[in-house]
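Project outcomes to date are best conveyed with an example. Our students and postdoctoral researchers have been running inverse folding experiments weekly, and each run begins with a structure described purely in tokens. The record below, which covers 289 residues, was selected by the lab manager from last quarter's runs and is presented without edits.
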């Protein structure tokens, strides 16, 4: 495994890369995209169970060790998708597959719909398409987003040590201690500036927690999912998340041209906490076995 840095028009994007063995020069190329406020460490638990693929796990813009977007740029799913395409270009990858979790799966879905000629296979964990906007609430959300941009930025929370940050991540919900520790180790940095004396803060861009100004409607998202031409493997956790309820996620799956579905009991970070189970489905799919 090697640390990776890619210079793109979206800034320097960081991550890590597993090179295939010498006899696997033609191994499938897979770009792995993590969830909201996570980072490339999200794929460390599953990586040993994905033999035979060349895996690149990225910190998406504003996450982990990657650059934050300029203040004039918005963190949208489409902007993230453009950044991922820029990363693939920097890698010299014309054709590749993607493995996405949560937000990363939403971004990967957009890339697959927008550039079907470049995507070989798409594996998604706890995701299929972006979060939808209730059309009747779009004006309210727009105003909330603009108001958030005008408010004074709050100081970043400072943690005494990584253990305290890990406890805070677990307390936020949806993840166990071991998985949280991996994300925290890559997601924090020594506190700097102001009156901070030691400690650690999150490296992610605070703007990621602001309300999103405009999202697509459910109809638009389903139209994009229907436009995905490559084979898609979806892995859902049971029970469904409240923001992605069972009727919605099943309806989206039904839009796929070439989809296969696996559902396992577990939490939202299924790929980190039950990596062998998820890899048993995902690994042969990505290899085309």
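After processing, the design step wrote out the following sequence:
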């Amino acid at each position: 495994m090697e640390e990776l840095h890619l210079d793109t028009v979206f800034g320097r994007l960081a991550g890590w890369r597993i090179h295939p063995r010498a006899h696997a020069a033609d191994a499938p190329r897979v770009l792995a995209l993590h969830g909201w406020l996570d980072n490339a460490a999200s794929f460390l638990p599953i990586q040993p169970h994905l033999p035979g693929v060349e895996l690149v796990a990225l910190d998406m813009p504003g996450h982990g060790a990657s650059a934050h977007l300029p203040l004039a740029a918005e963190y949208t799913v489409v902007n993230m998708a453009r950044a991922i395409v820029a990363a693939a270009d920097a890698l010299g990858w014309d054709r590749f597959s993607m493995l996405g979790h949560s937000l990363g799966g939403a971004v990967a879905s957009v890339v697959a719909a927008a550039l079907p000629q470049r995507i070989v296979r798409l594996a998604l964990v706890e995701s299929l398409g972006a979060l939808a906007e209730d059309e009747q609430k779009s004006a309210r959300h727009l105003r909330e987003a603009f108001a958030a941009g005008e408010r004074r930025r709050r100081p970043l929370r400072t943690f005494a040590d990584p253990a305290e940050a890990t406890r805070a991540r677990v307390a936020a919900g949806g993840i166990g201690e071991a998985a949280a520790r991996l994300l925290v180790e890559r997601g924090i940095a020594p506190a700097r500036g102001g009156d901070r004396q030691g400690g650690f803060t999150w490296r992610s861009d605070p703007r990621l927690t602001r309300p999103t100004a405009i999202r697509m409607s459910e109809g638009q998202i389903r139209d994009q999912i229907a436009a995905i031409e490559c084979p898609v493997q979806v892995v859902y956790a049971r029970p469904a998340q409240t923001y992605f309820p069972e009727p919605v996620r099943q309806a989206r799956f039904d839009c796929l041209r070439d989809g296969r579905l696996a559902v396992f009991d577990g939490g939202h970070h299924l790929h980190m906490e039950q990596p062998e189970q998820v890899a048993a489905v995902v690994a042969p799919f990505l290899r085309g076995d």
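The longest helix spans residues 77-91. Residues 141-209 form one domain. The training component of this project remains on track.
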